[in-house]
Every structure is written in C-alpha cells, then in structure tokens.
C-alpha cells in the first residue's frame, strides 16, 4: 500500500537575551550550577515576574521575518504540571493569544522547487531547568540556571510530506533566527530543539491518520533519522492491520531506536488558565516599527544579492548565504580577495572541511576572511598554484604564520610564470621523454590526448621544484606537441 | 452539577494531593455545591463579552534586558533539604 506522510513541527528557539524572560538573572551559558537561579526563577513565595522587553522585541522580529501577523495583545497562561526542574509547578507560556500569529516560510527543495510551509503561530514561554540523573546517592540533581530562559515555540501547520522537507524547513528556520541574531543557533547546547508530529494516511486520502510526537531532537541529522524511523514504524503497524496509538515518543539517535514516553490516556492535563501574576502585554505600532528597523538582511535577500553582486550560481549562493556568520566570512574574503568564485570554492571546500573535521563553528575558525582573501588574491594573480595555496592555507590555519606573502616567501611557493624559463624546462623534459611524445602525437582521441598530457606535468613540476605555473606549462606543452 | 469520584481522584493526582476514600465522599458533596454555584453564573448571557485575561484594566510594563541579579546560591541552598556540587537534590525522577 502507498502512504502519504504528514509532518508538522514544533520548534523551541532559545532567545539570545542577556537575562531571563521574567527576571534579571543572567542567561550566560556554562555558569556554575544554580549561580544564575534567583528568587523569581526558584519560585520563592512573594516574588513576581516582570517580562523582558527584549524577548518581545525578538519575538516580533521573528514574526516580521516570517510574514506573520503580530499579536497586538498577548496573554500569558499557566501550563500546570509537576516536575522538579520546574519550580513553580507550572510553565508560564502563551496559548490563545500568542505574540506571533499565522505566517509562513518558503523552503527550497533538492529538485529546485520551492514549497511554502505555513506557521500556525509562535509564542513566548520560559525554559525549564536541567535534571541530572547521574547518581547522587539515588537522588536527582537539579540545575536551575536554564529555568526562565526565554523561548519562542514555533508551531507549523502539518504541511511537510517528507523528512527532506522537514529538515529543509528546520534549516531555513535556523538560518532565519541566526541571521536575525535572536538565537545563537548552537544546537549542541540546545539552542534549538525540535518536536516532530508524524502521521500516515493512504495515498490521496483526505483523512489524517493518528499522529505521534517525537520529542527533543537536537540535530538535523537526528531529526532526519527519527522521521525515517517513525515512518517505518507506523507503516509496519498499519500494514500488519494494526492501529497507531497517539503518543509521545523519545528517539535515541545513537541507537536509532525510539520508545513510548506517554500515551494519550496518560497525557498530562495541563489545566491552562491566564496567569494572574502577569497583565496582558500590548504591542503598539511604534514597537513594531522599531523592531522592523532592526531587521538585518534575511537569508533569501542575501542569496539573491550574492548571485547578483558576486555572480555566484544558485547552489553556491544558497550555501554561502544560509548562515549569517559564514556569509559575513565570505564577504570579508571577497573584499580582500577580489575573485568571488575562487573565494566561494575555498570556503566551501578546504575551509568548511577543516571546520567540520575539527568540529568548529565559523566564529571559532583560526583564520580570518581577510587572510583567506589575501591568499585568494595570490591564486588569482598566478603567484600561487593550487598545491602551493594548500600549503599557505595550512600555515594560516595552524597559526604558523598569518601573513600570506610572508608564507609564500618563506616556503618558496612563488610560481614561476616567466614564459622563457618555463619553455626551456618543457624543452628539456620533452627531450627526455621521446617515446611518450611520439605516442601522444599518434593519438587521435582528444580525450586520451588530454590524459596523456597529464603524464608530462609530473616531471615538469619536478623540474620546476613545484613552482612552475601549471596553467602556463599546459599551454606551452600543447603548443610544442602540436595541438 | 455533580462531580464524579473519578474526577476527584484524577484532580487529586494532578495536584499531588493525597485524599482517602472518606474524604472523596465529602469532597463529592462540597465540590458539587461549589459547581452548582458556578452553574448559576452560566445563566448570564456572555455572548458579546470578551473573555477576561485579568481583572485589572491595565497592561503589563516590560523590563529592560539588563542583568540585575547577583549570585545568591549559598543563601538559597542554605534552606534546601539537600544539595551537592551546587545542585538541588530531589527524589530520583526518570520519565
């Protein structure tokens, strides 16, 4: 039987404010446990929450960037449940009147098409603390530093029909919030967490199937795997004539397994009601216009500009524009390196590969765009061969030396582009390889000829101690060997 | 309007309040009376009335995003039943 997959996402985005949503405690990551958990965060009797203006500004910026209606009047509610990392016994969140109303995001798919994913709403709420289940004499340790960190929860319509679409949406959202600067986007520290709602229905059917929710996925890869896993699980059950139980599931990415966390019958009854400690928040035109004036260039606009301004193709422009920090690095490189296409190749090639290998973010890269740009300039003006450039890159990366021209000088990487000198090297090498020369000249197939030409390059590079300009060598060879 | 024993037991679980059998019977009567009282309110026509989020006709003031709190962990943990390595310790919970 053929099935349609229906996917909706709920995404928690940690806002990059200095303080918590309802208190003046710092939200800096990595502090000693409970040193940033104060009276309000600990729910001490007699304390009152006061909302953070910046959290609202960020939420409004998010709304504007996702073509959404802004909730002029939003109301906080209490979502009641017991868990020790939630000291108040309820999460302060929004339900019926959220700060961000319906909006949408357009995603690009691998086949070149574009798809619109609707956002149902996005609301402001507080994060919970962390429970450490390592053994503390049979007890659980609680760190409340994270309690009260502002989040927006983005809830999509069930508009996605494959893992590819869901991941494309998640990546686009990551790109938007990091470009806006409202979230640091660091998924390994939980700055963005995804819940995936999945159901199946017979192909073409209008009736939605029973859905399950897989919670707390914190990487794009796990999200993709979890969706594939859950689709297969549901398909197996349905094709064996079983029924899907509406439930919340946890996915273990390391083992590619999932297990039920709770079923609908056990589901929490959250008993939402408006929070009496907080008045409704009204957002006026001036606040919205101020937020609008703070909107930076967004990924779609940046992508279009990269194509227009630097002549990049759609693929390169897409990759280099998605991440705000990578985009800034690219522009700095081009500014110092002139040749945009070469800069794009080096950033997507060597530079990204090294970041991945060392699990570093762009911000942590040991080289600057200006340095890479200086290197690109030397490739473009034929001072460096690509082999020589790799050596320069290595020296920059390891911090051995941070001046490109000094590295070229010290390592003797300057290419010889003096045609006279190169010509005599070619003459010499060809004289030593008469058999290969005859073979080449008797070959009719241009493809094979091209391949044979490569056979002369090794000895030439050796003769020039690796400093001969390969492009010029090639030109001279073709001319001397008679085309 | 009446309330069932099952509803009372469920609410008690959600509120983490222990009630025994006899108390449930008493609560059945008391809560039923309260619900009857609330039912009388339903007689009022509220079709054109917007649901109220807060009894005060005022809007919330917002706070600038500036750190104002200092680390007072020691003071807070002095009144906690159990702490270790800066953590609050609670009975083991694994969901």
From TrEMBL, chain B:
The question of whether Cell inner membrane is a record keyword is answered with no
Q: Which family does it belong to?
A: Belongs to the GatC family.
Top enzyme category = ligase
Task: Classify the source by domain of life.
Answer: Bacteria
Purpose: Allows the formation of correctly charged Asn-tRNA(Asn) or Gln-tRNA(Gln) through the transamidation of misacylated Asp-tRNA(Asn) or Glu-tRNA(Gln) in organisms which lack either or both of asparaginyl-tRNA or glutaminyl-tRNA synthetases. The reaction takes place in the presence of glutamine and ATP through an activated phospho-Asp-tRNA(Asn) or phospho-Glu-tRNA(Gln).
Enzyme Commission number(s): 6.3.5.-
Q: What is this protein called?
A: Aspartyl/glutamyl-tRNA(Asn/Gln) amidotransferase subunit C
- Protein's UniProt keywords contain Ligase: yes
A GO BP term here is:
regulation of translational fidelity
Q: Which UniProt keywords apply?
A: ATP-binding, Ligase, Nucleotide-binding, Protein biosynthesis, Transferase
Q: Which reaction does it catalyse?
A: L-aspartyl-tRNA(Asn) + L-glutamine + ATP + H2O = L-asparaginyl-tRNA(Asn) + L-glutamate + ADP + phosphate + 2 H(+); L-glutamyl-tRNA(Gln) + L-glutamine + ATP + H2O = L-glutaminyl-tRNA(Gln) + L-glutamate + ADP + phosphate + H(+)
Assembly with partners or alone:
Heterotrimer of A, B and C subunits.
* Pfam family membership, one: GatC
Question: What InterPro entries does this protein map onto?
Answer: Asp/Glu-ADT_sf_sub_c (IPR036113), GatC (IPR003837)
Q: Name one GO molecular function term.
A: ATP binding
């Amino acid at each position: 039987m053929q099935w349609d997959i229906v996917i909706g996402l709920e995404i928690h985005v940690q806002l990059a404010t200095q303080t918590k949503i309802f208190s003046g405690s710092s939200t800096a990551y990595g502090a000693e446990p409970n040193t940033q958990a104060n009276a309000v965060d600990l729910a001490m009797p007699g304390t009152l929450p006061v909302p953070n203006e910046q959290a609202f500004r960020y939420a409004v910026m998010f709304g504007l960037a996702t073509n959404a209606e802004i909730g002029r009047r939003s109301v906080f509610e209490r979502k009641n449940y017991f868990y020790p990392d939630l000291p108040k016994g309820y999460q302060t969140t929004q339900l019926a009147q959220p700060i961000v109303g319906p909006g949408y995001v357009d995603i690009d798919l691998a086949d070149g098409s574009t798809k619109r994913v609707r956002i149902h709403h996005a609301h402001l709420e507080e994060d919970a603390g962390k429970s450490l289940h390592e053994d503390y004499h049979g007890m659980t340790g609680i760190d409340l530093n994270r309690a009260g960190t502002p989040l927006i929860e983005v809830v999509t319509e069930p508009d996605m029909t494959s893992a590819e679409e869901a991941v494309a949406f998640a990546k686009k959202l990551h790109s938007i919030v990091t470009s806006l600067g409202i979230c640091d986007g660091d998924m390994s520290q939980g700055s963005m967490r995804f819940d995936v709602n999945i159901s199946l229905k017979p192909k073409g059917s209008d009736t939605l199937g029973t859905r399950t929710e897989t919670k707390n996925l914190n990487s794009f890869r796990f999200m993709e795997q979890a969706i594939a896993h859950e689709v297969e699980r549901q398909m197996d059950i349905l094709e064996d004539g079983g029924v899907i139980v509406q439930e919340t599931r946890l996915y273990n990415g390391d083992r590619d397994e999932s297990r039920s966390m709770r079923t609908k019958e056990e589901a929490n009854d959250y008993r939402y009601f408006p929070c009496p400690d907080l008045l409704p928040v009204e957002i006026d035109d001036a606040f919205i216009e101020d937020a609008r004036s703070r909107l930076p260039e967004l990924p779609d606009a940046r992508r279009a500009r990269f194509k227009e301004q630097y002549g990049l193709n759609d693929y390169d422009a897409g990759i280099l524009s998605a991440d705000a920090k990578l985009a800034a690095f690219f522009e700095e490189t081009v500014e110092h390196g002139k040749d945009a296409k070469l800069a794009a190749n080096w950033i997507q090639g060597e530079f990204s590969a090294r970041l991945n290998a060392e699990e570093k973010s762009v911000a942590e890269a040991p080289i600057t765009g200006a340095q890479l740009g200086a290197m690109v300039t030397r490739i473009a003006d034929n001072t460096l061969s690509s082999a020589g450039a790799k050596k320069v890159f290595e020296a920059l990366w390891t911090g051995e030396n941070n001046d490109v021209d000094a590295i070229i000088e010290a390592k003797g990487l300057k290419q010889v582009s003096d045609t006279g000198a190169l010509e005599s090297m070619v003459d010499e090498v060809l004289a030593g390889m008469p058999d290969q020369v005859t073979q080449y000249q008797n070959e009719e197939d241009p493809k094979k000829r091209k391949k044979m030409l490569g056979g002369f390059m090794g000895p030439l590079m050796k003769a020039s101690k690796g400093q001969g300009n390969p492009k010029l060598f090639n030109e001279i060879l073709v001319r001397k060997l008679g085309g | 309007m009446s309330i069932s024993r099952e509803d009372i037991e469920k609410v008690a679980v959600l509120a983490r309040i222990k009630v025994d059998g006899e108390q449930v019977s008493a609560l059945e009567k008391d809560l039923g009376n309260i619900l009857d009282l609330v039912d009388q309110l339903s007689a009022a026509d509220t079709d054109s009335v917007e649901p109220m989020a807060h009894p005060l006709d005022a809007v919330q003031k917002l706070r600038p995003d500036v750190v104002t709190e200092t680390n007072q962990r020691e003071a807070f943990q002095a009144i906690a039943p159990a702490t270790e390595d800066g953590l609050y310790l609670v009975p083991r919970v694994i969901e």
